[in-house]
Amino acid sequence: NNLSQFTESDSFEWDFGDGIGTSTQENPSYTYFEAGEYTVTLTGQNILGDEDSETKEFLISVYELPVARFEVRPEVIYIPDDPAFFGNFSVGADSYQWDFGDGNTSTDVQPIHFYQEIGNYEVTLIATTNEGCSDTTTVESAILAEIGGETISPNAFTPNTSGPTGGQVSGENGVNDVFLPVTESVVEFNMFIYNRWGELLFQSKDKTVGWDGYFNGEICPPDVYVYKLELAYADGSAEIKVGDVTLIR
After folding, report:
1. For residue 127, which of 68, 83, 97, 203 is within the disulfide window of CB 3.0 to 4.6 Å?
2. Residue among 65, 82, 66 at smallest CA distance from 74
3. What gap in Å lies between CA 210 and CA 189, rounded to an integer?
């Protein structure tokens, strides 16, 4: 914004401080392409040829733009059990805003999201710096959420001999110390465990909690046990599955 007085309009010379940009316009605009602090100088002459200049040091602060980039794995998930993992590969950003396309959002760096409805979802990431510079990227059809309907049951497991675990699956180091079927698109879950005499040893209505091999605080003997699964799926179907599992010690 040129505030000069008593200066000829055709005598202005601007130096924008980046070693590239100059202008002879009275009120120019200029785009910087490199981040940094820039000193600007304006020179002008009056009708008699007298010259004057003004320099303002570090007048312009230019910040780096971030680059928003991400990947989604897997690209096909089965509701409501499968998580979608969002890998954030953005550069130069300090904060993030995710839109998963189903009405849910997140500010986590690398979020995990569970979709609840079938559909093909568009995902958007806005990456922002502390200075307020931002970049946005959108991936159309990033996630396909489908209804599955598969349940897989292991046929053997080895309980933890140090005591009851509560049936939570650790999944560490390949430990197979809890009997828990792997479910897909199950919305209602009811599992019963019986011994060979038909005695009920365990029941779970939580598809994340299995049988740890204990009954009344004592580990059960090695044997073949019967399980019964009452399942309801996201597509409205239902199923009862009966099978056996071997407890190994």
Report:
1. 68
2. 82
3. 11
How much is the pTM? 0.65
Cα separations (Å) of 134 from 65, 66, 86, 207, 243?
6, 6, 19, 41, 55
The confidence band for 236, taking pLDDT boundaries of 50, 70 and 90, is confident
> What is the C-alpha to C-alpha distance for residues 20 and 32, in angstroms, rounded to an integer?
10
Question: Helix, strand, coil: what percent of the chain each, to 5?
Answer: 0, 50, 50
CA gap 150, 183 in Å, rounded? 6
Name the residue type at position 33.
F
Q: Could you give the 3-state DSSP secondary structure of residue 240?
A: strand
Report the relative pairing of strands 238-247 and 156-157 from DSSP bridges: parallel
DSSP letter for 218, please. E
Using alpha carbons, select from 141, 59, 140, 77 the residue that is nearest to residue 113.
Answer: 77
Q: Tokens 């828990």 label which residue?
A: 180
